[in-house]
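Structure (tokenized):
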């Protein structure tokens, strides 16, 4: 074997070895490659679903708080309504009492000094 042939053989073996090294490098590199489009799409879908779920939970929580506030307000208004109804009944009784003949006659006698027909009014004078 000549020196040139030996050099060519060594060069050929070096190229084969280089190809093997590059092939291993490419295999490792492919494993570390960026995620494919389908993986990116899945991640995007998961993020969107999580965002939507969070928004729904937030709205549910807000709605629940508003419901509790409204229920408390309804209870307060119902209490106020019952107090006003009671006051209304008391005022109706007072109106009936004031419009009764006996009360009108009492006021006419005591405050206005009126008498019925045939009655005599006596005025007591203090000394």
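Design, position by position:
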């Amino acid at each position: 074997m000549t020196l040139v042939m030996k050099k060519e053989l060594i060069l050929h073996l070096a190229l084969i070895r280089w190809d093997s090294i590059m092939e291993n490098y490419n295999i490792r590199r492919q494993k570390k490659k960026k995620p494919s489009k389908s993986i990116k799409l899945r991640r995007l879908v998961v993020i969107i679903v999580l965002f939507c779920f969070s928004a729904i939970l937030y709205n549910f929580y807000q709605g629940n708080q508003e419901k509790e506030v409204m229920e408390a307000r309804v209870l307060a208004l119902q209490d106020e309504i019952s107090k006003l109804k009671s006051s209304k009944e008391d005022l109706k009784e007072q109106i009936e009492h004031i419009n009764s003949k006996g009360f009108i006659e009492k006021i006419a006698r005591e405050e206005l000094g009126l008498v019925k027909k045939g009655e005599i009014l006596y005025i007591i004078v203090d000394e």
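Reviewer-requested clarification: The mean pLDDT is 87. Helices lie at 3-31, 37-99, 101-110.
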